[in-house]
Structure formats: structure tokens, C-alpha cells
């Protein structure tokens, strides 16, 4: 079971990016999924979370330009980022509270982090 974050890259200020967080493996259920970011020299901070039913929650500083969504069939969560600014430069991480089938077909609950995807915004 793993989380694969993708979609990062180099963009100019004012442009948009959409990040993806794909869950793979023998998944029983994906509960809450969150997006976080960590800028150089700073602590990791929450951007947004989304429940299995699609309810969303955003950090106050992230409201307006970021939109989290999910496709339960594709087991993928997205982060749409608009009007990007240089201060949005960071490594973006997703995490998920999920249940998967273990080696003996037992159900295992866990909390996973993806590997991160780098977003660089140039001025």
C-alpha cells in the first residue's frame, strides 16, 4: 500500500497546478485524506482535508486559492492550486487514514504519507 503524490513542477506566478495523490494496493477503505506542504526552513503545514464523503476543511490561510477533491473510484485525491505565488514554493505531501488487506487478508488500519512533490513558483 502506498500513496503517490504527483503533479508538481516549476510554474510562473499567477499560474495554476493540480496535484494528485493516488492510493494503490489492496485497499478496503480510504477515510480522511489531507494535503500538507513544507517550505524550505519551515514546518510542515496543513492545507486541506477531505473525508470519504467529500466534506472538506481548509486551513484559514489556504482558503480561496486551493481546492481539494477526490475520486473514490480512482482512489485519488486532488489539490487544485490557483494564482500561485513564490511563497507557495514547497514540497507538497498527502496523507491518508485508510484500511487495507494485510498479508493474511486481515484488515489493517494505518496512516500513510506520500513521498512529496515539489512545487516551485517563479516570480
Describe the structure.
It contains no helices and eleven strands. It is an all-beta fold. The radius of gyration is 15 Å and the shape is elongated. Helices cover 0% and strands 61% of the residues. Strands 2, 4, 5, 6, 9, 10 and 11 form a seven-stranded mixed sheet that branches. A four-stranded antiparallel sheet has the order 1-3-8-7, with no helix packed on it.
* Overall outline: elongated
What sequence of helices (H) and strands (E) makes up the elements?
EEEEEEEEEEE
Which structural class fits the helix and strand makeup?
mainly beta
Which regions contain 5 or more consecutive residues with pLDDT less than 50? none
| Major β-sheet profile | 7 strands, mixed
Helical region count? 0
Find the count of extended strands (DSSP E, 2+ residues): 11
Helix content: under 10%
Mean pLDDT over the full residue set: 96
- As a whole number of angstroms, the C-alpha radius of gyration is 15 Å
| Oligomer description | single chain
Hey, roughly how much beta strand do the residues contain? Answer: over 45%
The N- to C-terminal Cα distance equals 38 Å
Short summary:
The chain is mostly beta strands.
Element layout with pairings:
Blueprint: E1 2-6, E2 9-12, E3 17-24, E4 27-38, E5 45-50, E6 56-58, E7 66-71, E8 76-81, E9 90-101, E10 107-113, E11 117-122
Parallel strand pairs: 2-11
Antiparallel strand pairs: 1-3, 3-8, 4-5, 4-9, 5-6, 7-8, 9-10, 9-11
Keywords:
elongated; mainly beta
